[in-house]
Amino acid sequence: MSITTPPQQPAEAKILGKAERRNAAKRAKQRLTSPWATAAGIIIAVLWTIPSVALFMNSLVPGDLYRTDPWWSVMANGDLTFENFNTVLFDSFGDSANSPPLLEYVFNSIVVTVPSVVFPIALALMAAYAFAWIPFRGSSFLFVLIFALQVVPLQLALIPLLRLLGPENLGVAGQFPGVWIAHTIFALPLAVFLLHNFVSHIPREVLEAARVDGASHTQVFFKIIFPLSLPAVASLAIFQFLWVWNDLLVSAVFGSANTYTMTYPISNLAGDYGQYAYLVPPAAFISMIIPLIVFFSLQRYFVRGLLAGSTKG
């Protein structure tokens, strides 16, 4: 006599699925917190930190010893100094006695970077919500078109975009708005794609409950989509901040002497014959400080944002 096992109910299957995911997450956590994983993480962190430590120590070497003695010899003789930082921050430096100090370019970098992070992420999040939850004709084609724009090399768009922003059209080339528009355009395809992957996995029941309560699309966006998307937004903001902060090409093409970021003077800092090469390490180390502050401020969102949309349910 055979006994037929009754099929599992949907609720039971859902409970089992959640239990399996919890067990898988627990096993993954155990593997990542094992002694071998911890040791590997420490080794990788040390190797990754060595160049930064070497950069900082080289930035303390005086100019007359920079080409002759390594930093450990200078440190043994007690000749390390912070004067190089004072020179690049507050004095004219490089091959021009009239060049502004690096501190002025730090302000330019902040003015360029902050709007260039906020604008594309705000537009991309709105576009991601529209593509994911607002049905309209041609949405699939437009989304594929936006995704395909990622394969277009940035260099191919420089001259057409420069003509659009130039004096014959919008007239904002060489000004901060021109640099903001360029960075926003180049960042939007990837930002829309990544945020759409997260927004589309927000439970439908949450949005339907908001609509039943009479919430408009604007209210749904600001009260549900944005708060739930904060990990993905913060993760993308870190990457966008680093890309814009370290950019040289876009700021040089669409900017001017009044809008150049830190990367432009640092690229010309060594001088025609390398006579100011000892000022390059302190300038480069200064350019690292603000991105590090941004990363450590948002690091609690970083891993959550990287995994955003990778699982469903």
CATH fold annotation of one domain: MetI-like fold
**Any idea what the CATH architecture of one domain is?**
Orthogonal Bundle
CATH top level assignment of one domain: Mainly Alpha
Note the gap between the termini: 40 Å
Specify the overall morphology. Answer: flat
Give the percentage of residues in beta strands. under 5%
Task: Provide the fold topology.
Blueprint (H helix, E strand, L loop, with lengths): L9 H23 L2 H24 L12 H6 L6 H8 L11 H32 L5 H10 L5 H12 L10 H24 L4 H9 L4 H12 L1 H16 L3 H6 L8 H5 L12 H27 L7
Q: What's the short story on this structure?
A:
The chain is built from 14 helices and no strands. It is mostly helical and 313 residues long. Helix 5 (102-133) runs parallel beside helix 8, helix 6 (139-148) packs across helix 8 (176-199) and helix 8 packs antiparallel against helix 11 (230-245).
Walkthrough of the structure:
The protein has 313 residues and is mostly helical. It has a domain at 98-306: Orthogonal Bundle (MetI-like fold), CATH 1.10.3720.10. It is built from 14 helices and no strands. The chain has helices at residues 10-32, 35-58, 71-76, 83-90, 102-133, 139-148, 154-165, 176-199, 204-212, 217-228, 230-245, 249-254, 263-267, 280-306. Helix 2 runs antiparallel to helix 14 (280-306), helix 6 (139-148) crosses helix 8 and helix 11 runs antiparallel to helix 14 (280-306). The longest helix is centred in the middle third of the chain and has 32 residues, at 102-133. It starts with 9 loop residues before the first helix and ends in a 7-residue tail after the last helix. 25% of the residues are buried. The model is unreliable at 309-313 (pLDDT under 50).
